[in-house]
Amino acid sequence: MTQVLTETTKAIVRATVPALAECGTEITAAMYKRLFENAEVRELFNQSNQGEGGRQTKALAQAILAYAQNIDNLPALTGAVERIAQKHVGLHIQPDHYPHVATALLGAIGEVLGEAATQDVLSAWGEAFWFLANILIGREQQIYDDLESSEGGWNGWRRFAVVSKRRESDIITSFVLRPVDGRAVVRHRPGQYLTFRFDIPGLPPQHRNYTISSAPNGESYRISVKRETHGLVSRFLHDQIQQGAVIEVAPPTGDFHLQPGQDRPVVLLSGGVGLTPMVSMLETIANRGHDFPVHYVHGAENGRVHAMGSHVRDIAKDRKSFRTAIFYGNPHERDERGIHFDHDGYITVDWLAENTPITEADFYLCGPRPFLAVFVSGLAKAGVPQDRIHYEFFGPADELEAA
Fold first, then answer.
1. Do 290 and 247 belong to one domain?
2. Catalytic residue check, 296
3. Which of 26, 185, 230, 260 could form a disulfide bond with 152, CB atoms 3.0-4.6 angstroms apart?
4. How far is CA 327 from the centre of its chain?
5. What domain range includes position 212?
6. Are residues 173 and 130 in the same domain?
7. CA neighbor of 385 nearest in space, from 398, 373, 374, 376
């Protein structure tokens, strides 16, 4: 097991940065092609992320490039490595999966770079891969052990029954899940997600992550899922999964969650179905009786697609420290200001600066990629320290966590 990367290896990896910048997506496309020749490994991946213009391929190329660029400053990648480990545990990735990735990656580097992929280059990247892999394997084992030893915890797949199904809007439906074995469930950290394995007739097992939209209670979980027009699994959930259905679920994971001991003001900022972790956080803060200021700020197109609005208002209405602000980009004629929403148009950083404790608060963000692109950078430019901007994204990330 490699404990320290040699200076020779780091020098060779650094020297490959220009080639990775130019040919990175070609390398990762070739890697996935090789990797997916193994059906068992292919089934571990969310295949919807392999489409959409090659999102996963591009994200992984950026991840490999970031690793090479930071080969002398690996602590800079600590947060990204944690996100990878959390995702791997959700999918029940095991140490014996890593050799398949190593073989596919090195083969792809050789295929794309040709004569430039000398034995020294391949050896250096092999060493660099296993250095990172061993860090991940160790961290993943810690997470597995912690989950299994927690009250209500488990490893691998556990059977859950859908005990209720509730339509929250025209496009979002909530499912409440309880374990078939009747035992307790591990109390998640508000903001974390569950990984599911679905058996859809005629297809290999499908894996998806869905954020828990309820506060931890030790008995059940709630997920609130948007029906995507071309979403294979989301359509299956909405159209085929009814009360009483049984689904396989991995334990809650994810590094995006309400910080333990949170005592500063909080702004829960979301767009669209990104409200799911925010509702979990809001319920949790209310249940724990905290009295620090909480601002729930959400944007939706209109009331037809806005989910859980009345639920959020009910939580906030009797709590003096809670504030809610709902923005509708295109209100429907039946949407009433002051009842269904508060503001026409879209949330802006300027509005947040004027209406929330921007210099004091922790910001938790979740929403579509354009939403995050605006607010993650916008809040930083407005003076919010990076360590107080916490965000979750859907689909593959654009950094090392995509590896």
1. no
2. no
3. 185
4. 24
5. 158-253
6. no
7. 376
H or E stretch covering 236:
helix 232-240
Same domain, 243 and 321: no
Catalytic residue, from 32, 67, 98, 364: name it.
Answer: 98
State the catalytic residue, choosing from 32, 67, 140, 144: 140
- Name the nearest CA neighbour of 304 among 338, 329, 267: 329
Return the C-alpha torsion angle 48, 274, 62, 8, nearest 10: -110
Sign of the CA dihedral with 356 first, then 361, 366, and 370 last: positive
Among the candidates 149, 175, 195, a domain finishes at 149
> Regarding beta strands 193-198 and 246-253, do their DSSP bridges make them parallel or antiparallel, or are they unpaired?
antiparallel
**Size (the chain), residues:** 403
Question: In terms of DSSP H, where are the helices of 91-118?
Answer: 98-113
Hey, what are 303's tokens?
Answer: 């009331």
> Is 219 tagged catalytic?
no
d(CA 64, CA 87): 17
Tell the residue number behind the tokens 């490999």, with chain if given.
Answer: 64
**Cβ-proximal residues to 54 (8 Å cutoff; 6+ apart), any chain:** 25, 29
Rounded Cα gap, residues 348 and 375, in angstroms: 8
Quote the strand ranges of 180-318, DSSP E: 193-198, 206-211, 221-226, 246-253, 266-271, 294-300
Q: Are residues 113 and 141 located together in one domain of the fold? A: yes
Taking only the tens place, the pLDDT of each residue in 317-333 is 989 999 999 999 999 99
Mean pLDDT throughout 253-269?
Answer: 93
The pLDDT of residue 394: 56
Cα 399 to Cα 374: distance, rounded to the nearest angstrom: 17
Strand order, beta sheet including 266-271:
343-344, 322-328, 294-300, 266-271, 362-366, 389-392
287 is written with which tokens?
Answer: 């249940």
The C-alpha atoms of residue 382 and residue 356 are separated, in whole angstroms, by 12
Instruction: Please answer whether residues 196 and 210 qualify as being in contact, where contact means their C-beta atoms are separated by less than 8 angstroms.
Output: yes
Q: Is 267 exposed, middle or buried (0-12, 13-18, 19+ CB in 10 A)?
A: buried
Matching residue, tokens 């899922």: 225
CA–CA distances in Å: residue 401 to residues 29, 63, 291, 342: 17, 7, 35, 36
- Tokens found for residue 181: 């074995």
Q: Please answer whether residues 177 and 222 qualify as being in contact, where contact means their C-beta atoms are separated by less than 8 angstroms.
A: yes
Rounded to the nearest 10 degrees, the angle between the axes of helix 55-69 and helix 17-35 is 140
Could you read off the pLDDT of 101-155 as tens digits, one per residue?
999 999 999 999 999 999 999 999 999 999 999 999 999 999 999 999 999 999 9
Same domain as 272, residue 190: no
